[in-house]
Specification:
With 139 residues, the chain is an alpha+beta fold. It has one domain: Aspartate Aminotransferase, domain 1, CATH 3.90.1150.200. It has four helices and eight strands.
Length: 139
């Protein structure tokens, strides 16, 4: 099966302009902190994926169905209700770290943080580093 054609794709849009245009000053500040954290944790430059996701790096995935494509290793998006961090290695293997993170909720690969000031940034950095390392090993 050929690569999937995704609606959300890597673009050449400016990450700095995107983050700078976030209207809520608290969310904008949080995004700048996460941007810096993810740059350090991954050693990679950020890129825009679609209109609202900042992603770092890429990996190739292939499902058992044969569907395949390319996606970012980790990233984030400033949503209204929460700052969404994408932990593409999945979150179930990181429960010990999540216990020490602070207030959050999760989906399979999404970590939702309402207020970045309430979480332990060192734990968040370890989570990002470890998940990127684990995903790279798989691929």
């Amino acid at each position: 099966m050929a690569k999937a054609t995704l609606k959300t794709r890597k673009s050449r849009r400016s990450v700095a302009a995107f983050v700078g245009a976030i209207k809520d000053p608290v969310r904008r500040s949080e995004c700048r902190k996460v941007l810096k954290l993810m740059r350090i944790a991954t050693g990679l430059k950020p890129a825009m994926w679609g209109p609202t996701i900042v992603g770092f790096g890429t990996y190739h995935y292939r499902y058992q169905s044969g569907r395949e494509g390319d996606w970012f290793l980790t990233g984030f998006s400033p949503r209204k209700s929460a700052l969404t961090l994408y932990i593409m290695a999945g979150l179930r293997n990181y429960r010990p770290l999540l216990k020490n993170l602070g207030p959050h909720s999760i989906g399979s690969s999404c970590l939702y943080i309402k207020a970045l000031k309430d979480v332990d940034m060192k734990v968040l950095e370890r989570l990002v580093k470890q998940s990127v390392r684990d995903l790279r090993r798989k691929n």
